[in-house]
């Protein structure tokens, strides 16, 4: 069973930092494209960042570029999102997302975690 469990959210002041973690199980992380999405109240769920299977390529939404960094540890089966210089508009529930490339050459998913709340307030 595929499981994604986010952690690391919380309350932080503007300008502060948080590191989100997504602990994965039930699939081979190295064969997966991993993403972080976020959803603020009353808004759609938006892509924040993704990292490809080999970790060669990363992508960031314009609003977080140069402030957020996505990374993966295929040994610890965990994906991270380092968030620096946080702004009030970064406040949202952050979700981990996976698409898994199977040995049969087929993509599976998407799979979602339950989300972790990030609040940015002074």
Describe the structure.
By secondary structure, this protein is an all-beta fold. It is about 0% helix and about 55% strand. Strands 2, 4, 5, 6, 9, 10 and 11 form a seven-stranded mixed beta sheet that branches. A four-stranded antiparallel beta sheet has the order 1-3-8-7, with no helix packed on it. The N and C termini lie far apart (about 40 Å).
Number of DSSP-assigned strands: 11
Helix-strand pattern: EEEEEEEEEEE
- Helix fraction by DSSP (H/I, runs of at least 4): under 10%
Question: Kindly, what is the distance between the CA atoms of the first and last residues, rounded to a whole number of angstroms?
Answer: 40 Å
Low-confidence stretches: none
Structural class: mainly beta
What is the count of DSSP helices, taking H or I runs of 4+ residues? 0
Overall geometry comes to: elongated
Question: What's the SSE blueprint?
Answer:
Blueprint (H helix, E strand, L loop, with lengths): L2 E5 L2 E3 L5 E8 L6 E8 L6 E6 L6 E3 L7 E6 L4 E6 L8 E10 L5 E6 L3 E5 L2
Parallel strand pairs: 2-11
Antiparallel strand pairs: 1-3, 3-8, 4-5, 4-9, 5-6, 7-8, 9-10, 9-11
